Amino acid sequence: MLQEIWHNNKPTLIQALITLVIFLILSNVAKGIRSDHEVSLQRHEENSLVLSQKLQDLDGLFDVERKSRTALEDRSADLVSKLSISAQPLHPFPKDEDAIATEFKRSKDLVWNDFREKANRLGVMTPSNVPNFDEKSSLTSDQWRDRYLLLEVLDRFLNVLLQVKVTSVDDIAPGNREQETFSDSEKVVARYPIVFSVSCSPAQISELFARFQSDNTFLSIEPDRMKAGSVNPGLLEVVVRVVGLDVEDPREEESGSRRGSIRKRRG
Predict the structure, then answer these.
(1) What DSSP string describes 169-221?
(2) What pTM value is reported for the model?
(3) Which class for 169: exposed (0-12), middle (13-18), buried (19 or more C-beta within 10 A)?
(4) Strand, helix or coil at 149?
(5) Furthest-apart CA pair in the chain: how many Å?
(6) Domain range 84-248, its CATH number among 1.10.3720.10, 3.20.20.450, 3.30.70.60, 3.40.50.150
(7) How, if at all, do strands 178-181 and 168-174 pair?
(8) pLDDT at 119
(9) Along the 267 residues of the chain, how does pLDDT read in single tens digits?
(10) Nearest-angstrom CA–CA distance, 23 and 19
(11) Cα separation of 198 and 168, whole Å?
(12) Element (H or E) spanning 111, and its range?
């Protein structure tokens, strides 16, 4: 019976067997390919986890570096604001270029008239002439900016002299901007000096230095000379150089530096 079935259906059975063999072969091939894919996927997954961990670690490092850099920049800006007289100006530089000269004269007159009025009430003798800032129509914007910062120095130190109640302010001579290099070559320390000649008692000069050091972050004071008074031996004739400090971009120095002379004038 089997032989009869085989004989009658031989082509069909052979085709079925061939199909089965091909199916088994393809199944084994597919299984091998799937196994390779699974291994490959597992390997990629492991690599992805490792890479993800590395990225997280790097992001943490970058985040720490970024925070550190930001903190350093903030600290630097804070130090500059404490050092620079231009950071908190009493007399800001005008944005309108046409108003620079007019506004400077107005501010200077206000400072000087206020000082003279308060000094008269306190019995402090003052110079007869307004300090000479060498104002010219040909000044550049930078030169006008220098004079605004010198006015800052004048205003701040006059207040110190009034608080101490020195006997007299004999002379005030504004100087020129000077610059000193930083280790950072992109910035310089700019100095805005004014020379003051005053007469005062030993107790007053002591109080002057003490009050100056506690109240004036933006200024430095450099004693020039001190001697007994020629008219009143009980007083001291003191010449000090008061310097406003600022952090700025470097600038080419002017060839003809103007330096104020010391001439005694009383009013």
Answers:
(1) EEEEEE---EEEE-SSTT-EEEEEEEEEEEEE-HHHHHHHHHHHHHH-SSEEE
(2) 0.65
(3) buried
(4) helix
(5) 153
(6) 3.30.70.60
(7) unpaired
(8) 94
(9) 556 655 666 666 566 555 555 555 545 544 554 555 555 555 655 666 666 666 566 555 555 555 555 555 555 555 555 567 777 778 888 888 888 999 999 999 999 999 999 999 999 999 988 899 988 888 999 999 999 999 999 999 999 899 999 999 999 999 999 988 766 567 788 899 999 999 988 888 888 887 766 655 567 888 888 888 777 778 888 898 998 888 888 887 654 444 443 334 344
(10) 6
(11) 6
(12) helix 100-122
Please report the sign of the dihedral spanned by the C-alpha atoms of residue 137, residue 142, residue 146, residue 149. positive
DSSP 3-state of 60: helix
CA distance 166 to 239: 13
Find residue 193's DSSP bridge partners. 243
Ordered by start, the domain boundaries in the chain are 1-83, 84-248
The DSSP line for 21-56 is HHHHHHHHHHHHHHHHHHHHHHHHHHHHHHHHHHHH
Q: What is the CA radius of gyration of the chain?
A: 42
